UniProtKB/TrEMBL annotation:
PROSITE patterns: ADH_SHORT. It comes from Kineococcus rhizosphaerae. This is NADP-dependent 3-hydroxy acid dehydrogenase YdfG. Pfam families: adh_short (PF00106). InterPro entries: KR_dom, NAD(P)-bd_dom_sf, Sc_DH/Rdtase_CS, SDR_fam.
Amino acid sequence: MTIQDKVIAITGASSGIGEATARHLAARGAAVVLGARRTDRLDRLVEEIAAAGGRAAAVRVDVTAPGDLRALVDRALERFGRLDVLVGNAGISRVGPVADLDVEGWSAMVDVNVKGVLHGIAAALPVFRRQGTGHLVTVVSTSGLKIVPAQAVYAGTKNAVRTLLESLRQESTDGVLRTTSISPGYVRTELIDSAVDDPGLRERMQQDMAELGLDPDAVARAIAFAIDQPEDVEIGDLTIRPTRQG
Ligand code: NDP
């Protein structure tokens, strides 16, 4: 089965990496099912993909609500008859030292970045098992690989997901499930727009990102590479950074 035969659900498809991934996979013939909270953006993307001859559907998904992930999976089954891949991409970031005690931000990151992925697994795994095949792709981060100050909780959430997927992989050696963790470095998206409250710091981070960050399509291509492997090949971990990133 190549990309053009697959049905692929993507969380966080309303902007950045998720949006670029939806566009890229749809252009290669996959049927894509898009989830996020900003449905106006999802609807526009579905129209754009359909106008280009592609196949897409969308559903409002807040990944903190387990039922919304079930609705995403159900949409794939109703509309396209199966689900081959779930891309758990939705994520948020809050940057700052632990001593800032951004308790709300910590909780939000755990809810979206960790529990959001768990809710996706809970919704998709029974379908993958029933079908006898399925692929779980998560977007983690190089922040979890190179530990730096001011990203403790964000990096921790990404490493929690990395751990989760590796454990799931070892539990699933019957050939039904493939798991992939994609670790991007800096990517030019909206992620940092809500990462800090200080407008000056935010602007500096946005400038750095604009200068150094990858185009989200680079990550979309990496995700497509993992998805496009034959059934007996599993890309476990894939890191993708701007060449000039330290
Ligand atoms: P964006 O902010 O552009 O996209 C984040 C996406 O997540 C949006 O579509 C947003 O949709 C969605 N999202 C956020 N909260 C929720 C929620 N509660 N329920 C459903 N969807 C949600 O950032 P990126 O594209 O950069 O982020 C995508 C992933 O890539 C994240 O997991 C991020 O951590 C990771 N990443 C990004 C890097 C970067 O440099 N940009 C580097 C490494 C990893 P909506 O608001 O409409 O719900």
